[in-house]
Write a structure and sequence with these properties.
Elements: E1 3-5, H1 15-18, H2 30-44, H3 56-67, H4 75-78, E2 81-83, E3 93-104, E4 110-120, E5 125-126, H5 128-139, E6 142-143, H6 145-160, E7 164-173, H7 174-177, E8 188-195, H8 196-199, H9 201-213
Parallel strand pairs: 3-6
Antiparallel strand pairs: 1-2, 2-5, 3-4, 4-7, 7-8
Length: about 220
């Protein structure tokens, strides 16, 4: 299979596609971050110097490095390798049930669920695992589900230049499940349709039907 890494004219891409988010300057040091965790432990009503909590600040910051690694990743580089051997294939490619975990930017509480992505390729396709990596790149940042849905769809549109893109996210938000109205089990669904999916209601229905029924 002929794999090609495209030399993207990155200046023409949207900012969220061509580069990682700009870090605050100056960025707090690790020591400052761990001190902030100790402050929050005390604010919650516990003692940061209690035996069970002594190493908690270090573990929290280690977890932050993993949970928010999307701030160090560039979407354009995730989708930069494509393949040309698709024959006369002219229908959409659908990847269902991509599990993700993210954090709400309003309360910094988790929301988690599944992403479903379809696109109509033009001459070339991208490796299926790359779509899952793209979801993780945006999910591993402070987010709203609506913004994340739009980011995924527009990144695919800008980089792959397909005839159409469809993205659906389904997620449960802990800020609604375990605090506030406390309604566990409720789900939020967001969609973004671009190109042929936006212009053809039948294609939207077919996409949603295949997501719901597994084709």
């Amino acid at each position: 299979m002929d794999a090609v890494v495209k030399p993207w004219p990155k200046a023409s891409l949207l900012d969220h596609v061509r580069q990682a988010p700009e870090a605050p300057s100056p960025r707090p040091s690790r020591e400052e971050a761990e001190a902030a965790v100790r402050t929050l432990i005390a604010f919650a009503g516990d003692h940061p110097d209690r035996e069970g909590l002594l190493d908690t600040p270090k573990r929290v910051i280690d977890a932050y490095e993993e949970l928010y690694r999307g701030y160090r990743e560039i979407p354009a580089e995730v989708l930069d390798r494509t393949f040309s051997e698709i024959g006369r294939y002219d229908d959409f490619v659908l990847v269902r049930d991509i599990e993700f975990n993210s954090h709400c930017e309003h309360h910094m509480m988790p929301f988690m669920g599944r992403a479903h992505i379809a696109y109509k390729p033009v001459e070339r396709v991208v490796g299926l695992s790359k779509l899952a990596r793209l979801v993780d790149t945006y999910a591993r940042r402070l987010q709203t589900q609506e913004h994340m849905t739009w980011q995924i769809a527009t990144a695919i549109e800008e980089i792959l230049k397909p005839r159409g893109v469809a993205v659906m996210l389904e997620a449960e938000h802990m800020c609604m499940s375990v605090r506030g109205v406390e309604k566990p089990g409720s789900s939020t669904i967001t969609t973004q349709f671009i190109g042929s999916f936006r212009d053809n209601a039948e294609e939207q229905v077919r996409f949603i039907t295949m997501v719901r029924r597994g084709g």
